[in-house]
């Protein structure tokens, strides 16, 4: 085992010197080399970019995969450098369940045939979601991840190295300052009386030692200053590259928006087709032409909240009960209704009422059934 004691002692001395300098700076007992304003602005901008990129990346992951267990599984596969196994979307699973249920109920029944149509639509919606997830992951999540794991790690490493160079530079400045003060004191006030010849020799020897120490401190300061300036220039170039990162992330964001718009457009198209297919079986309850002619952003293009759905209309048409031409018939209230004025009647859901058909006037008075 090659154990370099001299290198270990040198590294320990450098670490101790940096620790002393850092502690004295925090206590206000040592001077600190300040960076220029432009450099500080670049550092602040880089930190802001990193923080917000990380937040956007994490929240986009939550949007694309709301299940935390699935996200943890993908994270483990990524750390193990293994491919994530394909996972069906919720829409695809729901569509498969509906198709299997239709086989059990019978494809020829109204419920079974409707399950087939809706299940096929859900599978197409699930396929569109899968394509959207893949496109978003490649075009948006991957560039953000590469920045956090690649460029930002490089910037952080160079910043730490720059901080170490600054501590070394300030420590050299402190040693040079102490050496100058000691050399001046030794030259002006000798330690012994100057009447004895031996004291002149001691004073000259001490002055020579301090001059040598001063030259060494000046040399170390020049070396530290050169290393600090070089590292500051490297770090500055990396920080200025944040502007290019913003441009790249802007393009990725536009691609993400386009993929999201295409996904919702496909979903809207599939749902309109499903409404059109179901509307052929119950044309009185759904005007398909009016919905397809309107804009997707028009709220009137969708079914009212209190209107019966096509499936519910089919369920009501199965019985095909013909009302009598005149007389009295019973009816069951499906939804709560508040009377708008005195000419209407407030009704509650599941309430049974009777309708009196007046043949002469064609008016159907409605009364609660007792």
Automatic annotation (TrEMBL):
Cell compartments where the protein resides: Cytoplasm
InterPro entries the record matches: AH/BAR_dom_sf, BAR_dom, Endophilin_SH3RF, SH3-like_dom_sf, SH3_domain
Gene name of the record: sh3glb2a
GO terms of biological process kind: membrane organization
Family listed: Belongs to the endophilin family.
Lineage of the species this protein comes from: Eukaryota, Metazoa, Chordata, Craniata, Vertebrata
SH3 domain boundaries: 326-370
Top-level lineage group: Eukaryota
Protein name as it appears in the record: Endophilin-B2
Domain named BAR: residues: 24-287
Keyword Membrane: no
Gene3D superfamilies for the chain: Arfaptin homology (AH) domain/BAR domain, SH3 Domains
Subunit structure: Homodimer, and heterodimer with SH3GLB1.
Any one Pfam family match given in the protein's UniProt record, by short name: SH3_1
GO cellular component, one term: cytoplasm
PANTHER family xrefs: DREBRIN-LIKE PROTEIN-RELATED, SH3 DOMAIN-CONTAINING
Keywords on record: Coiled coil, Cytoplasm, SH3 domain
């Amino acid at each position: 085992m090659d154990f370099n004691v001299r290198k270990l002692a040198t590294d320990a001395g450098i670490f101790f010197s940096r620790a002393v300098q850092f502690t004295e700076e925090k206590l206000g007992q040592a001077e600190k080399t300040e960076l220029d304003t432009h450099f500080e602005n670049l550092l602040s901008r880089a930190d802001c970019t990193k923080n917000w990129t990380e937040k956007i990346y994490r929240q986009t992951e939550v949007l694309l995969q709301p299940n935390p267990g699935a996200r943890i599984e993908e994270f483990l596969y990524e750390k193990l450098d293994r491919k994530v196994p394909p996972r069906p979307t919720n829409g695809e699973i729901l569509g498969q369940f509906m198709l299997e249920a239709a086989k059990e109920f019978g494809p020829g029944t109204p419920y079974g045939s409707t399950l087939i149509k809706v299940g096929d639509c859900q599978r197409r919606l699930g396929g569109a979601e899968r394509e959207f997830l893949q496109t978003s992951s490649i075009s948006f999540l991957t560039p953000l991840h590469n920045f956090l794991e690649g460029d930002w790690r490089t910037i952080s490493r160079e910043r730490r190295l720059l901080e170490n160079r600054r501590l070394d530079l300030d420590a050299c400045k402190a040693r040079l300052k102490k050496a100058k003060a000691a050399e001046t004191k030794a030259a002006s006030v000798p330690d012994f009386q100057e009447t004895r010849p031996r004291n002149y020799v001691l004073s000259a020897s001490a002055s020579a030692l301090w001059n040598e120490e001063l030259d060494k401190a000046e040399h170390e300061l020049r070396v530290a200053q050169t290393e600090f300036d070089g590292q500051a220039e490297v770090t500055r170039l990396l920080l200025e590259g944040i502007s290019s990162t913003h441009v790249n992330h802007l393009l990725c964001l536009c691609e993400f928006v386009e993929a999201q718009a295409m996904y919702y457009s496909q979903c809207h198209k599939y749902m309109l087709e499903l409404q059109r297919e179901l509307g052929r079986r119950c044309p009185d309850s759904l005007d398909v032409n009016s919905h397809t002619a309107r804009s997707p952003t028009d709220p009137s293009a969708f079914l009212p909240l209190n209107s019966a759905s096509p499936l519910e209309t089919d369920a009501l048409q199965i019985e095909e009960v013909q009302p009598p031409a005149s007389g009295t018939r019973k009816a069951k209230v499906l939804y709560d209704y508040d009377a708008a004025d005195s000419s209407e009647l407030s009704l509650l859901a599941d309430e049974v009422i009777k309708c009196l058909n007046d043949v002469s006037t064609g008016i159907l008075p409605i009364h609660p059934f007792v």
